[in-house]
Amino acid sequence: MKNYSEKNTLGHIGKALEAAVSVLARFVPGSVRVYGSDRGPVTEADLIVNQVLRQFLVRDGEGWLSEESADDLHRLKKHRVWVVDPLDGTREFVDGVPEWCVSVGLVENGRPIAGGICNPATGETFLGSPETGLLCNGKRVGVSQKRDLAGALVLASRTEFKRGEWESFQDTHLVIRPVGSVAYKLALVAAGLADATWTLTPKNEWDIAAGVALVEAAGGFVQDLESSSLTFNNQITLVSGLLAGGPHLRQQLTSLIQQHKETHAPRFLVATSSEQRAK
Predict the structure, then answer these.
(1) CA 181 – CA 135 distance, rounded (Å)
(2) Which strands, in side-by-side order, build the sheet including 153-157?
(3) Within 10 A of 233 (CB to CB), how many other CB atoms are there?
(4) 78, 105, 140: which is the final residue of a domain?
C-alpha cells in the first residue's frame, strides 16, 4: 500500500469535500424530499453525496464505513478505513437550519488520524490531523484554553435539549447553546468557537470520527461517558455518549458528567436505551 502523508491526505479530503459541496448546490435546504429509514430521515442529497465521497476518497487497500452504505465487514481487516457521514444533521438540512455538515474521517488501526468537516450553509471548512494541526478555511485555529467552567460555552444536542435531558445543566454557570449536527458541534469545539460539547446518548462511529480527529488535532480531548478513549472501525459501530473540550477543562467536565449520571441514573439509562432502540 502506498505511504500517504497526512498533509496529502488532508488535501485529498479537502477536494472530496469540494466535490460534495458542488453536488449539494443542486439542493435547497428546507425544500428537499425526505425518505424514511430505520436510522431517521434520509434525502436524495445524502445518497448522492455518499456516492461522490466513496468514489473520490477510497484508495487501494482502504476500507469504507458510511451511514448511507451497507456495512461491509471486510473493513475490519483494513489498516485504514474512511468513516463518513455524507450529511450529518439531516433533520436540520430538511428544516433549513444551518447546522448540518459533510463529515469525513480517516481511521488508521482504530484511531482517527485525519478529518474534514464542511458546513456549506455557513461556508466553514475544517481540516485537521496531528501532523498539520487544525485549519478553518485555511487559517490555523485551536481549542479553547479556558480553565474555569463559569461562563463556558457548551454546545448541546438539540434533540436532547428538547427532551429535557439538559435541565440539570441549566442550573450551573454554563452557557448552553443547542446545535444540530454532532459533527458540526465537534468542529466548532475543535476551532475554539465553543468550549465543550457532550452527548448523553449513543452515537455511531460515522457521526463522530471526523470530529474526534479534529478536536485531537487542535489539542483538545475526547472521551466516552466512562472516561475512556474512543476507538473506531469496530464490528459494532455504536459508541456510548461522548465528551469533548479544551484540555484545561477535562477534569471539571468529567466530574460534572459523572455527577449528572449519578444523580439522574434511572433517567439516563432510559434515554440511553431509547436511543439504542432508535439506532
Answers:
(1) 20
(2) 175-179, 153-157, 196-198, 242-245, 221-224
(3) 24
(4) 140
pLDDT digits (tens, 9 = 90+) for 92-133: 999 999 999 999 999 999 999 999 999 999 999 999 999 999
Write the DSSP symbol of residue 229.
P
Distances (CA, A) of 11 to 43, 48, 89, 107, 124: 28, 22, 24, 16, 16
CATH number of the domain to which 51 belongs: 3.30.540.10
236 in the same domain as 189: yes
Write the pLDDT tens digit of every residue in 184-211.
999 999 999 999 999 999 999 999 999 9
CA nearest to 154, candidates 106, 194, 202, 182: 194
CA gap 75, 4 in Å, rounded: 19
Question: Does 146 fall in a domain?
Answer: no
Whether residue 145 lies inside any domain: the answer is no
Burial of 31 (0-12, 13-18, 19+ CB in 10 A): exposed
CATH label of the domain that carries residue 188 = 3.40.190.80
Element (H, E) at 126: strand 124-129
Q: Which domain holds residue 126?
A: 6-140
Do 134 and 160 fall within a single domain? Answer: no
Provide the phi-psi class of 120: left if phi over 0, else alpha when psi is between -120 and 50, else beta. Answer: alpha
CA 81 → CA 21, 171, 210, 248, 258, distances in Å? 22, 42, 12, 31, 32
pTM for this model (two decimals): 0.91
Integer Cα distance of 135 and 196 in angstroms? 18
Is residue 1, in this structure, part of any structural domain at all?
no
Grid cell at residue 72: 461491509
Q: Taking the CA atoms of 144, 149, 152 and 158 in sequence, report the sign of the dihedral they define.
A: positive
Cell of 20: 460534495
